[in-house]
Amino acid sequence: RMQEYDIIVLGTGLKECVLSGLMSLSGKKVLHIDKNPYYGGESASISPLEELYRRFKVHGPPKSMGLGKEWNVDLIPKFFLATGELVKILLHTEVTRYMDFKVVEGSYVYKAGKLHKVPATEEDAQTSGYPTVSLIYIYICFFSLIFFFF
Description:
InterPro entries: FAD/NAD-bd_sf, GDP_dissociation_inhibitor, RabGDI. One of its GO terms (cellular component) is Golgi apparatus. Pfam families: GDI (PF00996). Helices cover about 35% and strands about 15% of the residues. With about 150 residues, the protein is an alpha+beta fold. It has a domain at about 105-150. The chain has a two-stranded parallel sheet with strand order 1-2. It has a two-stranded antiparallel sheet with strand order 3-4. The protein has a two-stranded antiparallel ribbon with strand order 5-6. The chain is flat.
């Protein structure tokens, strides 16, 4: 005999998990499923590294990258403003019991065969050596002055 559910949630991204949890807390019988062999939807972290290569249908990682189990690659960056609305929602729904937060030590981009640190402060932007970042910083300063005086 087939079981009956009040709600069927497809996907295990953050919003689906919050929705599923809220529906369950309100007394609904919830079936929560995902087509992927991992949970987290588009915001998942893939490990081992070989799984990431399989996901994108690319030949396995080179030996120089070491053991695949030592890697944990985010499919998308996960940054929250410390006092932002999303953090308030996560605290209210108590999803934070299942999450860890930490200060970001650095963000890097892989380009042209090298890792490059993404500037995170004004000083980093000024000294990054990237003309685009330096120009953006100069434009921000310039427009800030204009708005301040006018």
